[in-house]
Amino acid sequence: MKPSLLCIVAIALSPLLLVSCSTTPVTGRSQLNLTSDAKVAEMTIVAFEQMKSQMPISKDPIYNEMLQTVGERISQQVFWDMPMAEWEFVVFDQPEINAFAMPGGKVGVFEGLFQIAKTEDELASVVAHEIAHVTARHTHERLSQQMLLNTGGQVVGIAAAIAGPTSLGNGAYVNMTGAIMGIYGMGAQGAAVAWDRGKEAEADQIGIMYMAKAGYDPSAAITVMERMVEMEAMRGGNTYNSTHPSSADRLDLLHSYLEEAMQEYEKAKEFLY
């Protein structure tokens, strides 16, 4: 696969930056990564701890058991894509329909999500999708793009510093924790990260394969997205910003991934059961 334009530009600037042009799992897309996996994971762990201190954690035994069971099975399937993850799965006592995953293996689900993810298979579709954002290094990619494009390619601090600046090598620094907090929309109401259309579609494609390999029925991803479509229709349209794909668009793409995912699911059932 040809390297992306940002990779080409970054290579040209390589005397100033630590450049890595890697590929995403499943899709094989070429991507730019100017960040350290270990450092990004370290900073997201700090951010997750801050989130746990700001928001109440759910005591619902059913929700917690579901998430722990689903999380354990999916995390086993993504080991080679996240070998150093320190997995932690937390249900937050929040009414919003929301979930997220962070580099380092931190996964959060809001109680409101269980309105549309009512079974383990359905929850697995959401958790696998969020983890796919991590294994595809979407956080790393956004950080890298911001660093490269900000002020014409000069590496500068890109958000309010919560921790000291992190060295990227060759004299380049970035306030990494502040940048991550900005990406995840961290605050008193939790995480509200909004990926662009391409990232969401990629996470859907990767995630449906992860859930299938973990022995969860991929058709559950269709069911969850159908409920999202119905909810958006009741609310008068796409509930996300203009850069985010509508649930109807995502539903169409999920149907196109389903046949391959079902093949993986049948293989997984033979192995797991």
The termini sit apart by 37 Å
* Beta strand count: 7
Rounded mean pLDDT is 79
**Low-confidence sequence ranges:** 8-19, 151-174
The Cα radius of gyration reads 18 Å
Query: What is the tally of helical segments?
Result: 9
> How much helicity do the residues have?
40-55%
Biggest sheet strand line-up? 3-5-4
**Roughly what fraction of the amino acids lie in strands?**
5-15%
Largest sheet: 3 strands, mixed
Instruction: Tell me the series of helices and strands, N- to C-terminal.
Output: HEEHHEEEHHEEHHHH
Class from secondary-structure proportions: mainly alpha
What form results from the Cα inertia axes?
Answer: globular
Task: Give me a quick take on this structure.
This protein has 273 residues and is mainly α. The chain is 51% helix and 11% strand.
Structural summary, described in words:
This protein has helices spanning about 5-10, 35-55, 60-75, 120-135, 140-150, 175-185, 195-215, 220-235, 245-270, and strands at about 20-25, 30-35, 90, 100, 105-110, 165-170, 170-175. With about 270 residues, it is mostly helical. Helices cover about 50% and strands about 10% of the residues. The chain is built from nine helices and seven strands; from the N terminus they run H-E-E-H-H-E-E-E-H-H-E-E-H-H-H-H. Residues about 10-20 and about 150-175 have low confidence and may be disordered. Helix 2 crosses helix 6, helix 4 (about 120-135) crosses helix 8 (about 220-235) and helix 7 runs parallel beside helix 9. The strands form three sheets. A three-stranded mixed beta sheet has the order 3-5-4, sandwiched between helices. Strand 1 and strand 2 form a beta hairpin.
